[in-house]
């Protein structure tokens, strides 16, 4: 990670769970980290906790709103110069059955899991090209639900958004390679992770309890991101699946 010291990493969904763990790891690795999230209070609390370890800038933003997103990336350009690494971590999971046709729930997931991921990637790549950064890296936190349809009831719409995310990730990698760019694009697909994802966007009064199931922790995914970033310039990890021991699904 030595080559990334002092360079700028942007992390979406940075205020909790996987995003917060990634932020902490990158700050401790010496990067200038910009955390994007709606909950500014949590970002500022993290900033206070990490102030003696590195640099964290907290930016309040709703990335599902494109104008808000553009303002955030303008702030990044004006205040830290631009983007070298983008971690698209923000995600929304709403359990909803396909036949119910609850399009508002679908839209909520697609706005963040698909459209915001594409828009953030666009802004990051434009920043890299504008500054002639040809060794940047985009890492999308995807899901095992993008590799096979999950068996959990009401998970198919969410899974479809993650299938789209995986397609965008691989398509972006191919497009950049076709342009002879050395900007890397990687997908990290976690299995079941103990995070707020199962309750933060739940429409149920009884959020899913995963404590009895094999699961991994946010730090485990932060470690995976660290590994992907630490690969030498000639190595690109296209897809990394990280799942708990004992997972039989």
Question: Would you give an account of this structure?
Answer:
By secondary structure, this protein is of the alpha/beta class. Helices cover 43% and strands 15% of the residues. The protein has 7 helices and 7 strands, in the order βαβαβαβαβαβααβ. It has helices at residues 17-28, 40-50, 66-80, 103-130, 156-178, 197-200, 218-230; strands at 8-12, 32-37, 55-60, 85-88, 137-141, 184-190, 239-242. Strands 3-2-1-4-5-6-7 form a 7-stranded parallel beta sheet, with helices on both faces. α4 links the parallel β4 (85-88) and β5 (137-141). α1 crosses α7, α3 runs parallel beside α4 (103-130) and α4 (103-130) runs parallel beside α5. The longest helix is centred in the middle third of the chain and has 28 residues, at 103-130.
